[in-house]
Amino acid sequence: MTLRVVVADDQALVRTGFRMIIDARDDLEVVGEASDGREAVRLTRELAPDVVLMDVRMPVVDGIEATRQIAECGSRARVLVLTTWDVDAHVVAALRAGASGFLLKDMRPTELVDAIRLTARGDALLAPAVLSRVLDRFLRTTPDPAPPPSLKDLSGREREVLTLIGQALSNAEIAGRLRLSEATVKNHVTAVLRKLGLRDRVQAVVAAYDHGLVRPRRP
Predict the structure, then answer these.
(1) Taking the model in full, what pTM does it have?
(2) Phi first, then psi: what are they for 191, rounded to 5°?
(3) Percent of the chain residues topping a pLDDT of 70
(4) Is the pLDDT at 136 greater than 90, yes or no?
(5) Which residues pair with residue 78 across a beta bridge?
(6) Do the beta carbons of residue 59 and residue 66 sit within 8 Å?
(7) Could you tell me which residue ranges the HTH luxR-type domain spans (predicted)?
């Protein structure tokens, strides 16, 4: 199956470079290019891509707001945010808005295509420990988000699982900690994502922090 990609960046040369890299792979195809966030949202609705490469800084509508609109419109597309700094505070805002990960613009071509494939499968692009470090650093200095969806629909066990996801534990590690089978943990993770309306494990880590189940470590 060919994975469909929309590239959103206000620089035409950057879009062309990404298209050349992506279209050179048999299993990937660029189906649309957007020069601003509004166009990225429109193309995502019209073309139903699997993955959107989204630059943070774009005119008309920025990448963070465009990501939020894509998440809220019910699209199944997963968003990878493009940034020039791996410690950019905008990364956290983008993850909160619904992005599934972020990429540096100076990545190698192989890293780009691998990231697209991983994200399309629903796998975690960011190692949980890396994501936790990013959140630790910026949630100490950024304003609190809007109140997240209530946890009242989660069972006690599901809250435990969400907390451990936020602590960067894998399903196998959670299973060992709670003395459950990995299959049972997987079911709990699926239930947590469904009940909280989260797209993937990255979003679950962000939710655990935003709900206060995990606190940023002091510097």
Answers:
(1) 0.78
(2) -65, -40
(3) 84
(4) no
(5) 51
(6) no
(7) 147-212
